[in-house]
Structure formats: C-alpha cells, structure tokens
Design brief:
four-stranded antiparallel beta sheet, alpha+beta, four-stranded mixed beta sheet
Length: 173
C-alpha cells in the first residue's frame, strides 16, 4: 500500500504525519517563554549534538509526538500539548545507517505544566540517542574516547617503528 504524500515513514517504521511544525525556536535566537497555552500543557525539547560530531549539523533531527512530526531542527522547540499521556520519538536521518540516535519516551503533561526534555545525539552512529529530563549525557562518549586513545597509541607505535627502523638501518651500514 503506497504511503500518501503528506505522510512519511519514520526510522522506527511508523507512519507519521509530516510537515506539521507547531513551533520551532532557532538555536541562536532568544529563548521563548516556557509557559503553556491556557488550559493546556507544553513540551519543551532541547536537541543537541556534540561538537566533535560536527557532521550531524548537516542533518536535521526528526521530532514526533504521538506519531505527528512537530519539529526538525537542532536547538529548542516548544510544542503545545493537551494534558495527558504522550509518546515522544526523536531520531536523526543519516547516510548509512539511514537513521541514528533513535530515542522514545512516554511523558505525562498536566494542565499548565511545561515538561522539559533533553535529547543528545550519539557520538557513534550505531548507538541510540539519550532522551529524558535535563541534563542528558552524550551516548557513546566513553567508546569514542577509548577509540581515540587506541588510534593514537597505534599511530605512535607506527611512527616509533619507522624511527627505530631508520636509526638501526643507518647505523648498520
């Protein structure tokens, strides 16, 4: 069955209504007030990636609440919501794999309440993102540090081997 053009398939395989941007706050602009509309509640979500994962800035994250797309930019978004239980899904479209950092969370919004959430994209593409109350840690940071240290040690050993080979080759002849 073909997907209607107004809908898009999210990384979790669900069908979500696309293009319904409720409100989007640019990361460089002034912070918007964190108060919900009268009688309702709101979800304030801050989406971030680590500066070392700078390539993620080329890709806009997808935010869905109850299966409806409500935002797609790094920074802070505030979504007015009716009081009750809601499902929040965030992921980042990417090259290979086509979806990284998928994170899901159920939240309860009470009348007049703004629920603050923080999303952190992973440091390694095969790890899920972190979604929850602020502050959140960047998933995969320890693995990234370990991989960087192992790479540096291997590079130092390689350079040291070349230097030792050059020194022993020049003194033997």
């Amino acid at each position: 069955m073909p997907v209607p053009p107004a809908e898009a398939v999210s990384c979790a395989g669900r069908i979500a209504a696309g293009g319904n941007v409720v409100y989007q706050q640019p990361p460089w602009g002034p912070q918007q007030p964190a108060y919900p509309p009268s009688g309702g509640g709101a979800l304030a979500l801050t989406l971030r990636h680590h500066p070392l994962a700078f390539l993620l800035a080329l890709f806009k994250p997808v935010v869905e609440v109850d299966g409806h797309r409500v935002g797609n930019a790094w920074g802070r978004i505030v979504v007015p919501l009716a009081p009750g239980q809601h499902h929040v899904h965030v992921h980042v479209p990417y090259l290979l794999p086509t979806c990284i950092g998928a994170a899901d969370l159920g939240v309860t919004v009470h009348p007049g309440q703004t629920v603050e959430l923080d999303y952190r994209a992973p440091m390694i593409v095969f790890i899920g993102g972190a979604l929850g109350p602020p502050p959140q840690k960047y998933p995969g940071m320890v693995a990234t540090i370990v991989l960087a240290i192992v790479t540096l040690v291997m590079l130092l050993c390689l350079c040291g081997g070349f230097i030792l080979a050059a020194c022993s080759g020049s003194s033997g002849g």
